[in-house]
Amino acid sequence: MKRNQEFSYAKSGRVHQKERTRQALLQAARELLDEGRSATVAQAAQRALVSEATAYRYYSDAPSLLRDALTGKWPELSAILAEIRAADDVALRARIAGEAMARHVLANESHIRPLISIAYSPGADASVRPGYRFQLIEAVLEPLAQSYSEGDLRRLELALATVISAEACLTLKDVCGADDKLIVENIGWTASQLVTAFLPRKD
Fold first, then answer.
1. How far apart are CA 113 and CA 108, in angstroms?
2. pTM here?
């Protein structure tokens, strides 16, 4: 019985050690991104004081490392979804979603920019991105599900996806030179206008 307990404790200790190593790699990746640096598996290993060979047993490439490192980076998302669903007006829902997305992107540029770059690289897996925009858009469109065809809702979903997005925020910043306040206001306004244009006019 004692030997079984010792084996169980040893096995449990190895599991905890593996998780500590994984968390150290994830934290190292986050720190590198916060500093505006790239976060490869090798660089994360060096920062975490872990051998490269060990690090590659946990993460075979940078996209998988970044996916896990950035998961759960929007702790306010549940509250924002609840706020969207509490709004009766669909255009208002779209504005809330657009402004929330813009604020999130601008507050986390150091993480989001390299994530976008990796997602668009040849052979990359799109699942490296967390897909926050579609969670927001789904909440926006819920009241319309029973009143419009699947095709019409898909068209509106795609239109909103071009606005409620990191790409839209960064384009306004990098190409148009807009400041953060104007970006948030414009993303929210544009999203609400798309919904307003889609809905039938009230006489």
1. 9
2. 0.77
- Tell me the two tokens of residue 130: 């967390």
The answer to whether 107 and 162 are in contact (CB under 8 A) is no
Place of tokens 């150091």: 110
| Rounded (10°) angle between helices 150-163 and 90-107 | 40
pLDDT per position as a tens digit, 110-160: 878 877 877 777 766 666 677 889 999 999 999 999 999 999 999 999 999
CATH class in words for 2-70: mainly alpha
Cα 117 to the center of its chain, rounded Å: 14
What residue spans define the domains of the chain? 2-70, 77-198
pLDDT at 3: 58
Burial annotation 96-119 (CB, 10 A radius, 16+ → b, else e): bbbbbbbbbbbebeebbbbbbebb
Structure-token pair, residue 23: 């968390």
In whole angstroms, what is the distance from residue 92 CA to residue 138 CA?
A: 14
In angstroms, the CA 99 to CA 183 distance is 8
Among 172, 64, 173, CA closest to 128: 64
Q: How many residues does the chain have?
A: 203
